[in-house]
Amino acid sequence: MKPESLELIRTFTPWVMSGITLGWIIVVFVLKKTYAKTEDLIAVRQEMTAMHAKVDALPGHEEVTQLRIELSDAKAEIRELRAELKPVNHLAQLLLENELKERNNGNG
Asked: Which UniProt keywords apply (predicted)?
């Protein structure tokens, strides 16, 4: 090799190595920003597994439909009971009113 070539290599080697190192740092930084860490993926998988378990524990379409039917039946029964209790409530009010009148007449 010529002495001039060796001088060029000696002069530019640090610059070339610095450029390669800087390029590698940029590549690593971009890759770090682009791809997720393994720990993050594990955490997301655990959360997803927990969500799947919660969703699996929820009632299905058939169960919800059955509950709606039962709720509708219960509402109808409550309406019937309310209609049956109105005369009893009226009678209780009359008895209370009569009792209060007797007390007022007895004291007055």
From this structure: Membrane, Transmembrane, Transmembrane helix
Q: How far is CA 2 from CA 10, 11, 51, in A?
A: 13, 14, 70
First to last CA, the chain: 136
User: Is the alpha carbon torsion for 85, 90, 93, 94 positive or negative?
Assistant: negative
Report pTM.
Answer: 0.44
Among 83, 59, 63, smallest CA distance to 71 is for: 63
Report how far Cα 75 is from the mean position of its chain's Cα atoms: 31
Distances (CA, A) of 19 to 7, 11, 16, 29, 36: 19, 14, 5, 15, 27
What type of residue sits at position 57? A
45-58 confidence digits (pLDDT tens): 999 999 999 999 99
